[in-house]
Amino acid sequence: MKAKRIGTGIMALTLTLSLCACKPQKKTETEESSESSSSKPTTQSDPSETTSEPSVSDTTEETTVQTSVEDESEDPIVIYGYEKGFQMTLQTYLPDLEVEYVYVKPEEYYKTLQEALSGEEKVPDLFMMDAEHLQEWTFGGQALSIDQLGISSSELSDQFPYTYQLAENAEGSIFALAYDLSPSCVIYNRALAKETLGSSDPADMAERVRDWGTILDSARLANMNSEGTIKLLADRQQVHRLFWAAHTEEWVKDGQVQVGNDLQQYFMLQETLLAESLTGEKEWNSREWRSDLATGQAVMFFGSLNTAADVIGYVPGHEEKEEPKTSSEDETSETSEEEIEETGWAILPAPTALYDGGTWLMASASTDKKATCAQILRLMTLDEKTMTDLAVGGKFVNSVKIMSNCADDPNFISDFLNGQNPYAVLVPEALKIQVPANTEVDKYVDSEIKILLQAYLDGEIETFDEVKEQFIIGLEELLALG
User: Domains of the chain, with CATH numbers?
Assistant: First the structure.
């Protein structure tokens, strides 16, 4: 690691991240692992009768939608997934549908899926897709677009736009629909925030992480007040995710690579965080990373409710609230209010709107069950009754209307979050998430930036001017520009 002299100019970082910137008659279930499988959708008419009217997509490009689709096979639909609950969901909402659900362990999923699509037995008709692989598979030619299933883009008007924009190719065709979303926020330990930053109030905390400069100041303050034993963050990878979400300019314009000031500011911030040991050097979501949060060595993390459930034991969903009891003023002491403020966890909007996951469904290009695929997609991502049930159960479903209702419902106020309704924070953020203009270019850029940053921090590249030069040359070669 190189030990550069850090100039005082880093204190005046100017980059601002915009602040809130089926129970089958004949079920066959197969597992690629030794574990059982099982998730939720609403009964419709015979899938072979599924129809949809042609429409013009929201992106102003006309899309030819099949006005009717039908199944070409009477075999059970084959679905591949990495969620155990999915089989139970289909059984609940599609009791007459014959399904063969192949559950695969997450770490083995994509290799197994690729092999299955290339094989002749148990070839998937429908399969799950996560955020990390979504764009690769959108452009990979292994899935059908939703218009080929008879689903018009006009049906998606209540979905969160980023979810289908991420699965859209250059021609405006959409290849997947999301049913479980993971918009992110700042999730912090109230007691540690009070101890190291002086306040646990969400309004105060929002000011402490509103942009690069305040994040750096807060990291320094937490480090100083704890004598280095408590870090603001357990890793620096989260900062990369914030940078990526905040960058809205095109990397390539008119055939030329564009490098804005934000990239240099990001490199300088990463250098400072490392040189001054202001974050933990853990791998995002690793056992060590989780341990830092569980044992009070990190104040906060940027993540979704799914991540919070996985890492700190948050239980999302509907909690029936009793009618508030009337009480005299002397029953609530100043001490009890302070204890409530300084215990548990809290959330607030991230410096810029972002997500850390999600689950999409895609229909295989080789499926002979188009109508059934369309039926399941509609039930999981468009059906109000189904999605309301799923939201009550704790999923962040792909409906602005339903999640907005959750945000206004006192039964979604969380005791874990000491009286906060997380959806009141997350729904506005999910609506702000932006998708890059060219997701294929962004894939190359992301890889190149990570490589160059590590080389810069290791001292293999001495100056940012060299970084910039290598970035431009590398991207031109990768994209065959010039």
Answer: 28-183+356-398 (3.40.190.10)
